[in-house]
Amino acid sequence: MAAKAGVSVATISRAINPETRNKVALKTLQAVDRLIIKYKYTPHLAARNLNKTVTKTIGVIFPYFPGIFYHPYYVNVLAGISDYLLNTEYQFKILLLKKEHETWDHYDFKKGEHVDGLIVTHWTKFFSSSRVLEKMTIPCVVVNDFVPGMKIFFVCGDQASGGKKVAEYLYGLGHRCFAVVCGSRSSTDSDLRFKGFSSFLKSKGIALNQAWVIHADYREDLAYEKVGDILKDKKKPTAIFCLSDQMAFGVLRKLKDLHIPCPQKISVVGFDNDPRAGLCEPPLASVEVPLYDLAAEGTRRIIAHLKSSIRVRALTGKVLFPVELIRRDSVQKLS
Questions:
Q1: Residue 70's CB: how many other CB atoms inside 10 A?
Q2: SS3 state at 147
């Protein structure tokens, strides 16, 4: 193309790059654009970045499982990231990772994926320890799953506060007998939600029945299966707190299948305020975490760090977003 346009390869490169087009003479730009249309030329973005030390690309790590982008959690995170990047010179690259610690612990994301920074969800699924992320050669922002003392940057919902709000709500309505459906054992978000819930109850002299504290790995099908064991007991909880809405939907299905009315016999509360929460029957009370805002803030922080002229310090710290209890008809006051 350079020969046909009568210019150097470097000039062609500047002409097809949106960031450098303004450095090329208008007459040359018009000639190059005519050739692009005539020969249907498409620039290879990945190849263009191969020899660059700065690619202006942010890698976004998500877990790899079927139907991930039907899941509102990841859709909200992705929307917050992409919308913030829309009016910047940065782009993003989705990295769907499988659960292989021995692979990702030693993987060089800068060289292997040509990204300048990382935004990570569910870091405990892919990395064996916090030190792996701390040793990254590129800045890293972690969404939720906060661990004190880690030398990276976190953007988090106030998970413990959310658990406490649910406990206060149910206690205030007269409930004293609880079951809890927890997420995965590796999830610090699940731990914090549970601690906020159980700590408030402990302050009121209520100890949870450990046989009624189960783990369902944030899965609807597993919650449906496991909560059945609790519901077989002659004595049943008056309220079930599910540490995600996905699990709460499984619990609601099980109650319906067993002909146990909710909330007349058992109240149910979820977490995350999934769009389905307000549409299911009964509408599900839940805790809303502002995932979109949280992801946008994490993106803002990592770009500000990358653009900073002084980057001798690592990107570390934490931003904690407040959460809100959304009250709906799946909870009933005890007489």
A1: 8
A2: coil
